[in-house]
Design a protein that fits this description.
The protein contains 15 helices and no strands. It is an all-alpha fold.
């Protein structure tokens, strides 16, 4: 993995917000809306997490897999790249990239446990075939910098030694992968936004520390607002709406 974010392919691949939730023409023909697109990506992010928990894969690998999946769909359609195959394939690829080996046979075993539908009972050969398509969709750029990397240093530097504050901030960072923030913002700004939310919630006054960082606090606060908006709207993301979105994908235009 590259050691410098600013010279990495991750930095070069950052998107403008308006580039991220663009519905592919093939998906639009099936009636997929921007909201459907978001729902499907959220559902598949959760699916990757569930699958990884069964296989006992660490959080960083899950985060890399979700990032790959979300990157793929900035370039490819849900119609041509079936999400229920792309998501586990991204997890398989992330395990390799993060040097956390998992056997494809084990992955397929738990995929079948989580998806009972015969149509989506994929085999090892399906994972391996999709792996090449995912790699091409990613332009073979596998480097991902995560907000986790700077979190311990920032927490220590801010003088926060509160265990509950630390746990809250880590949880917030985990939840950012249920959104597209990692595709848009440098990871350290996501980290700062999570610390900002946690400090307000826990009534920790670290405003002076933020001022000394020489970062644009407007950007940090905007990211924080996106995270809070997600929590506010999360109750609207029902299984019924997810199923309805997937049903649109299954129809012929």
């Amino acid at each position: 993995m590259a050691s410098n974010f600013w010279t990495s392919t991750h930095y070069k691949e950052l998107k403008d917000p308006e580039e991220v939730n663009v519905v592919h023409p093939l998906d639009a023909q099936r009636g997929i809306s921007v909201e459907d697109f978001r729902l499907i990506k959220l559902h598949m992010s959760n699916y990757i997490s569930k699958l990884a928990q069964h296989i006992k894969i660490r959080q960083r690998v899950i985060a890399t897999a979700v990032t790959y999946m979300r990157r793929v769909y900035t370039r490819k359609s849900l119609t041509e790249y079936e999400p229920r195959l792309v998501a586990p394939t991204c997890l398989y690829l992330a395990c390799k990239a993060e040097e956390s080996v998992v056997h494809a046979k084990l992955l397929v075993f738990y995929m079948k446990k989580l998806y009972a539908d015969e149509k989506f009972r994929y085999e090892i050969k399906d994972i391996l075939e999709m792996e090449m398509k995912v790699l091409e969709a990613l332009n073979f750029y596998l480097v991902v910098f995560h907000p986790y990397r700077s979190l311990p240093e920032f927490l220590q530097d801010s003088g926060i030694n509160d265990t509950s504050m630390t746990h809250l901030t880590w949880g917030l960072v985990n939840d950012t992968y249920r959104m597209d923030l990692i595709l848009i913002h440098p990871p350290f700004l996501i980290t700062l936004a999570c610390i900002y939310i946690a400090s307000v919630h826990k009534e920790k006054d670290i405003r002076t520390w933020f001022e000394e960082l020489s970062v644009d606090m407007n950007i940090v606060k905007n990211i924080a607002m996106e995270i809070l908006d997600f929590y506010e709207n999360h109750r609207l993301f029902t299984e019924e709406r997810v199923h309805a979105a997937f049903n649109k994908l299954a129809t012929n235009p």
